[in-house]
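Subgroup meeting minutes
Present: P.N., E.W., G.H.
Scribe: E.W.

1. P.N. recapped why we're keeping a running log of single-chain structure predictions: easier to compare across weeks, and new members can see raw inputs and outputs side by side.
2. G.H. added today's entry (156 aa).
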Amino acid sequence: MHCGAGCGNRFPRRYNRAMSALTLEPANYAEIHARLTARTWSVCCLCAAWCDVCTAFRERFDQLAVQHPDKVLLWIDIEDRADLMEEFDVENFPTLLIQHGDGIVFYGTIEPDAAGVNRLIAAQTRDDGAGKTPARQHALRAKLAALLQPVLPAAS
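Output recorded in log:
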């Protein structure tokens, strides 16, 4: 379904694009690139299109984007983006990855409960660092940057 404004973007009418999680797909690369900085928190939901639990959780994940407008919430289909996910062992769905810069502070399977995920995001992204698991470095942010780089206009 298109947004109805003649823009050509495909997503259900009930989603306000400005308030939804972004799907990692070519149509969104420029926006994702613009929002990701070294200081940005990213919250990635790793799912698969065939997973009914993921499909049911998608709208709730979009609602979390409204509650966390200072973070980039990304919906990543691990089969569509296998090139980015090769180093991750996704054992079950949905799997959540919370990252700040190149440091991963949370990676694991979650219950598809928006209230619980909201509390997890809030706890892991607190400024005081309380309750965080130690960050581990990972190349996902660098891979995203390389993927998104071609969408930037050439420098004059």
